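Re: beginner question about structure tokens

> Can someone show what the tokenized structure looks like for a real chain? I only ever see the sequence side.

Sure, here's an example I had lying around. Input first:
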Amino acid sequence: MQRLVQLALDLWGGPASAAPAAAQPDRPAALDPLEQGAAGKAGRRPASSSPPPATPSRPLGTLLSPALFRHPQAQREVLLGDVLVGYALQRARRRSIGFTVGPDGLSVRAPGWVTIAGIEQALQEKSGWILRKLGEAQARLDRQASGRIEWRDGAVLPYMGEPLTVVLDPTHGFSGKGAALAQDAASGLRTLRVGLSRSAAPAQIRDAVQAWLMREARMHFTRRLEHFAPLLGVRWSSLRLSSAHTRWGSAKSDGSIRLNWRLLHYRPAIIDYVVAHELAHLRVMDHSPRFWGTVASVVPDYAGLRDQLRDQPAPLWE
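And the corresponding structure tokens:
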């Protein structure tokens, strides 16, 4: 049986160098294209079922050893090489079997007419790709966990690519904004003075810092949108801040832009890449070579900046 097998990788989990996926003009365009590959072509409903793979999958719980990779909504398990993978299976009205590897693990979307044997065969055929991407996603989560912020007096988090130390200062209200940025003239070290008691709960400290970061993000993003829009010959209509865990930004054909406030953890050049990326979608609503040429016209080194954004996970806040 010939069929198209689509492979997609979550934005934060892997490279953005594969073939782009076109975005519909009336829908948000994601920051980076999903990584896709194809094997064969989509065909008609087969007259006979596909031959089963050498190692079949089974319903979740029928294998004795624990899965090394398991999606939270996994219903089935499959042994790929010597690695047990629990994956989430969804039936959908589509002509292809789609694989997505993200922070949660492996998801599979398949047409209703494809047998479990056919799905198993596709998983086996792409097992190398799946295991490699699962490993990369897990490594990224491990790096995020190691950078988890401990919310207390003296907490350190990245701000515009440099460390920022949180200092609890209950004697100041900071003009009603709750926090104020300060920089030591001699050392250049920056502190964020937060108007809270040193006995404040971690959640209070986190929320105060987040509120300050979101205000800073809106101001910084607005300045950079106003800088790049004329250079690209586009007009943006609105800016909304996003808290998404799997997408840095999006753009719609009506000029509305969404940018993730967590971008303020990264240095300004990386933020500029994301801003220019989304504005470029107002000219080209896909990830075609023409789109990337548009991005390169204002951010020539976009490829290196994109790789840095992918390889340097933002710290965990929860």
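Each token stands for a local structural state, so reading them left to right follows the chain. The chain has six helices and 15 strands.
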